[in-house]
Amino acid sequence: MEYGHIAHVDKPISRMVFGTAMPTMFAAFRSVYGESPDFDARLDAAFRLLDDMYAEGVNCFDCADHYGEEPLGEWLQARGLRDQVVILTKGAHHNRWRRRVTDFDILHDVHNSLAKLRTNHLEIYLLHRDDPAVPVGPLMDALNRCVDEGKLGAIGVSNWTIPRIEAANDYALKHGLRPFTVSSPNYGLAEQVEDPWGGGCLSLSGPANREDRAWYAKNRMPVFAYSTLARGFFSGRVRSDDPASARRFMDEAGVKGYAHPDNFKRLRRCELLAAEKGLTVPEIAMAWLFNQRALDVYALSSPSKRERMRSNVAAGGIHLTDAECRWLDLETDHR
Prior knowledge:
Blueprint: E1 3-4, E2 13-14, E3 16-19, H1 23-32, H2 39-55, E4 60-62, H3 69-79, E5 86-91, H4 103-116, E6 122-127, H5 136-148, E7 152-157, H6 162-174, E8 182-183, H7 210-219, E9 223-225, H8 245-249, H9 252-258, H10 261-277, H11 281-290, E10 297-301, H12 306-315, H13 322-328
Parallel strand pairs: 3-4, 3-10, 4-5, 5-6, 6-7, 7-8, 9-10
Antiparallel strand pairs: 1-2
């Protein structure tokens, strides 16, 4: 496992990050709240999965105010691992009634996250969504109140545009506050053609986002990339010669976001290169991400089995040439 370092976090951070938005963790979440008759079995399954991820060298776990925090907090306490683990969690996500990007919601969600995760400090805290109608000043003030109280380390955003990040950081600079130093957009070999969840999900992938990638490279802002394997599109089960396989092996959000013609072309090239190199499709797709050397990338992944995380970790050490990377991303017909 390769580890990186980011400002305001005093621990090394695994380049592979385990994302807790997945079935085993959702089932454990319901169990924590007594909504399942097999409470112990479901929580034990989550504990075993977290044990497996940690055993593969993963020390950074991604969660959010509305998923993953409860079982992760139980596990950290039971295993006594809090000092060894980097928590990345998120708040200020919209709900069905309103857009929750306000100073009140930030303070509410931070304190709930601290309680659910059984800790007094969160290494990385992100605003999960944005509301461009809300001024950035009160948001930065609220986050920095928590920074000053020792509750937050690095602060950042998920699914924010670059102009909004710049506006927030300009405000922080003018007022002597900690700026955003981390961002978590979608990023991977597959182009996010449609918003998987119907609003507010931003991507760095594909030709349309080349300038945004250049901004991240120039500013050296770490990218915690989500949906790195396009929600199963590059799992190896979806086949380029069988487009209908996407609906058999992917959820509705994944099909909506990624099962599009150009991505099937990328998948075909992954299949060909994987066969040549004796690798798998997900290994090639993950290797492509880690070979984007201009960016400081951490990859969020949510495998259900230890061997799949082991494969992801190994992919981080696979070298692809620049020509191979451009070919995989349809930038050229030759490699």
